[in-house]
Design brief:
The structure holds two protein chains of two kinds. Chain A is of the alpha+beta class. Chain A has two domains: 10-56 and 244-459, MetI-like (MetI-like fold, Orthogonal Bundle); 72-229, Sandwich (Jelly Rolls). Chain A is built from 16 helices and nine strands. Chain A has helices spanning 10-18, 21-43, 46-54, 72-75, 167-181, 190-195, 246-282, 284-299, 302-312, 317-329, 333-345, 348-355, 360-396, 407-416, 419-422, 425-453; strands at residues 83-86, 93-96, 102-112, 121-128, 134-140, 146-153, 160-162, 207-217, 222-229. In chain A, the strands form two sheets. Chain A has a five-stranded antiparallel beta sheet with strand order 2-3-8-5-6, with no helix packed on it. In chain A, a hairpin with a 5-residue loop joins strand 2 (93-96) and strand 3 (102-112). In chain A, helix 1 crosses helix 16 (425-453), helix 7 runs parallel beside helix 16 and helix 13 (360-396) runs antiparallel to helix 16. Chain A is elongated and about 110 Å long. In chain A, 34% of the residues are buried. By secondary structure, chain B is an alpha/beta fold. Chain B has one domain (6-264, 281-327): P-loop containing nucleotide triphosphate hydrolases (Rossmann fold), CATH 3.40.50. Chain B is 32% helix and 24% strand. Chain B is built from eleven helices and twelve strands. Chain B has helices at 57-64, 87-96, 114-125, 131-144, 150-154, 163-175, 193-209, 221-227, 245-250, 255-263, 304-308, and strands at residues 6-20, 28-42, 46-50, 72-77, 80-81, 97-100, 181-185, 213-218, 230-235, 238-244, 314-317, 320-322. The longest helix of chain B is centred in the middle third of the chain and has 17 residues, at 193-209. The two termini of chain B are 29 Å apart. The chains are: A alpha+beta, B alpha/beta.
Chain lengths: 460, 330
């Protein structure tokens, strides 16, 4: 006879759970993730996050594949952040010429005191012109030297000048460097040529740099410029191949992964519990149908069906959730629930309850399910990581929700863009770390709950 | 049983359990657990159902309170046919009947307190609306079964109580809806010998005070004397003998009753060297019992007719019926 010690001792059980250090760690991590989720939902509303995640325009002034800032600890030197200098608020000097034309001159200064070279330099123009507009660009080094970089003719009012991949410029700078220090034993890229100290060893010349624009404007023409010296590091989490800050995906991945995992595990557990209970309680034809359905479901290949579904239907996270639940509720767990229910059904207290008129519904809800709940709850918590991983795996396979930023999708991006070969470890490790953190927290809590319910495990 | 009000009447009651042989075979067999039982019980009276294991006494008890639906025959309760009632009528019948089970430890849901267990019937039947009244009723019921001080017991869980205490709670639960009929299915057989008599005394006193009809199911003839007005001796689904308890014990007529009485231990030192005559063999399988008298294969007095034909119930003495050819006036 099961005269269980957990009779009514929900509070005691909770107290016992808290007595396990592993549970405390798990709960602490879980709380952290929950706080993170709440913070995310409040600070970055979902539509905004989705829009930001899907547009490449708004990130054009972010570095591409920048590592997180804290990576400096491992390099031991100060890595460049992105520097943006805009002509807004800076008065360009304009001298009137004949026919209403004006000579335009603008110098933008910025301080560069990092210990590595920037990966990329782009000048963003914003102009309005009636005729062709040609701009001369000069580079002013901290040591006072001025280099004429090139003459650029605007093709659009919002044209960009890419300095980095300009082969002519690269050749020009290489010659310049050769004239200063002789043949260099390293390749001279545009950035190196612009920022290096003229010495045999490759070193950044720290100090105040300037970039000067000169042009002749027609009457009514305007010209604004913005220089972006891209950094090697960006924010807490770095950026990906589309210059998107990974932090948005990582942050939004947290509530999505946790709610997906929890929703999937709670719904599948509760629904299979109900189905199993009905099967065991009513028996007969209902039982047979449910049992056969379970057996058929057990041999159906889960992933191929899911892949088929996601191929044929427009999917979002709810469709995925629904199909995962549908494919999971007739799990083999139903069989053990059914056996338990059949056993409980024969207990004298059920007969006593029938004798005083308890209905089937009342018996199931108040007499049977509370009896089978104790082992179900830890199993439910322990199954959360499985669903979190499943969602990530589906995203990784390209079967996830196409709009939502999720951890799995970040890993997928990283994988398809060869992050590991190119050495962008942060790109894979960050979402993987969060996935593990999330799983570990649920697993630790699940194990502790299991121990309180099943005393035999306590010896482990 | 003349001027009293008739509470319960059974007419040729049968409860056969279906057993299916296999998945495809269409042939169904029946276990004839209760096979043609008739008797009646007046209000406020107790009847003992005596028999060995497998005699169908428990099945009969459960059929009477409609935990099982009989296959044929009729159950008349307070003049109303309750044989096949359903839904609201059945709920009413549930309120009018109570059950005390054999195993007090299993009789309560371990996740309910005693209070909650006793509250359940009241909640289901919604006879008492307010929470305060329910608590009052529960405390009253606990007082009735002498579990005092009631506050000490009401908020305990079943595993904190002893078997005797639990059986008292079971009795409290059976009477809390103020029923007219209680089936007590071997209520003391799992209890310590020391508390058996207390429980039986309690049950008897309640029965007299609340004018309950009680069906006392037991395998122990010794306790029937103490407990009931009437005694029914059951064997293999049949009632072999029925009479007042006094009469059955003093003047047992059926060979099976006599055998049962012989088997009852008597605390007399002289018995230590006496050999008790016990009928040989075992009770028949109820799937395919003998067509004739069901006791005939084991009966020391059986003659030709016993093996051929099932005996009817003969009134051997006034109010003393025996299902045995020995008493047939032919």
């Amino acid at each position: 006879m099961s005269r269980s010690k957990h009779a009514g001792g929900f509070r005691n059980a909770l107290k016992e759970v808290f007595s396990y250090k592993s549970a405390l760690i798990g709960i602490a991590i879980l709380l952290l993730l929950v706080c993170l989720s709440i913070y995310t939902i409040i600070t970055i509303p979902l539509p905004e996050a989705i829009h930001a995640w899907r547009s490449s325009e708004i990130w054009s002034k972010n570095p591409r594949n920048a590592q997180p800032e804290w990576i400096e600890i491992f390099y031991g030197k100060k890595l460049p952040r992105t520097i943006i200098v805009s002509s807004k608020g800076i008065n360009a000097s304009e001298t009137p010429l004949e026919d209403g034309k004006r000579a335009f001159s603008l110098i933008l200064f910025f301080n560069y005191d990092y210990e590595d070279f920037p990966p990329e330099i782009i000048v963003f123009f914003n102009s309005s012109y009636s005729e062709k507009l040609t701009i001369d660009v000069y580079w002013i080094r901290p040591d006072g030297e001025e280099i004429r970089l090139k003459r650029h003719t605007l093709r659009r009012p919002d044209d960009k000048l890419y300095l980095s991949n300009d082969l002519g410029l690269e050749l020009q700078l290489e010659r310049l460097v050769e004239s200063k220090i002789g043949k260099a034993n390293f390749t001279v890229t545009v950035e190196r040529g612009l920022f290096m100290e003229y010495s045999k060893t490759l070193r950044v010349l720290k100090g105040r740099y300037g970039i000067r624009f000169e042009s002749v404007l027609n009457a009514g023409d305007t010209l604004e410029a913005e220089v972006v010296v891209y950094g090697l590091v960006y924010g807490l989490a770095g950026t990906d191949h589309l210059r998107r800050p990974l932090i948005i995906g990582l942050l939004w991945g947290t509530p999505i992964a946790m709610s997906f995992g929890l929703a999937a595990s709670i719904l599948t557990t509760v629904l299979s519990l109900i189905i199993g209970t009905i099967s065991g309680w009513y028996g007969g034809v209902i039982d047979s149908v449910i049992q056969r359905a379970t057996e058929i479901n057990a041999v159906l290949p889960f992933l191929p069906i899911l892949i088929l579904l996601t191929t044929f239907y427009r999917i979002d996270i709810f469709v995925i959730l629904l199909s995962i639940i549908l494919l999971n509720i007739f799990s083999l767990g139903i069989k053990s629930t059914r056996i338990l229910v059949m056993q409980i059904k024969s207990y004298p207290y059920i007969e006593a309850a029938q004798a005083y008129g308890a209905s089937n519904l009342r018996l199931i809800l108040l007499y049977v399910i509370p009896k089978i709940m104790p082992p179900v709850v830890p199993a439910m918590i322990s199954s959360v990581p499985g669903f979190v991983f499943l969602e990530a795996a589906l995203s990784f396979l390209g079967l996830g929700d196409p709009f939502l930023p999720t951890w799995g999708k970040i890993i997928n991006d990283a994988y398809t863009h060869g992050a590991l070969y190119k050495g962008f470890y942060y790109w894979i490790l960050e979402p993987a770390f969060l996935l593990i953190l999330c799983s570990v927290s649920f697993a630790l809590i699940g194990i502790a709950l299991e121990r309180t319910v099943n005393p035999k495990l306590k010896e482990l | 049983m003349s001027s009293d009000v008739r509470l319960l009447e059974l007419e040729d009651l049968r409860k056969w359990f279906e057993i299916r042989r296999g998945f495809l075979s269409s042939k169904t067999n029946y276990v004839k657990a209760v096979d043609g039982v008739s008797f009646s019980l007046d209000e406020g009276k107790a009847v003992s159902l005596v028999g060995e294991s497998g005699s169908g006494k428990t099945t009969l008890g459960k059929t009477i309170i409609r935990l099982y639906e009989p296959n044929s025959g009729r159950i008349i309760f307070q003049g109303k046919d309750v044989t096949h009632i359903r839904a609201n009528e059945l709920k009413w019948y549930r309120r009018m009947t109570g059950l005390v089970q054999q195993d007090p430890f299993g009789a309560f849901a371990s996740h309910f307190t005693i209070f909650r267990s006793l509250e359940e019937p009241l909640l289901i039947h919604n006879t008492v609306k307010s929470k305060e009244e329910r608590a009052e009723r529960i405390f009253k019921a606990l007082e009735e079964v002498r579990l005092t001080p009631v506050e000490d017991f009401a908020y305990k869980y079943p595993h904190m109580l002893s078997g005797g205490q639990l059986q008292r709670v079971a009795i409290a639960r059976a009477i809390i809806l103020e029923p007219k009929l209680i089936v007590a299915d071997e209520p003391v057989s799992m209890l310590d010998a020391s508390v058996r008599i207390e429980i039986l005394t309690l049950l008897r006193r309640l029965q007299e005070r609340l004018r309950l009809g009680v069906i006392y199911i037991t395998h122990d003839l010794a306790t029937t004397r103490f407990f009931s007005e009437w005694a029914l001796i059951m064997y293999a689904g049949h009632v072999m003998e029925k009479a007042s308890t006094q009469e059955v014990l003093r003047n047992p007529l059926h060979p099976y009753t006599r055998a049962l009485l012989t088997a009852t231990p008597e605390p007399n030192p002289e018995n230590r060297n006496r050999f008790k005559e016990v009928p040989p063999g075992e009770p028949p399988a109820l799937i395919d019992p003998p067509k004739s008298c069901r006791f005939s294969p084991r009966c020391p007095h059986a003659f030709d007719k016993c093996f051929k034909e099932e005996p009817p119930e003969f009134e051997a003495a006034s109010g003393h019926w025996v299902k045995c050819w020995l008493y047939g006036r032919s």
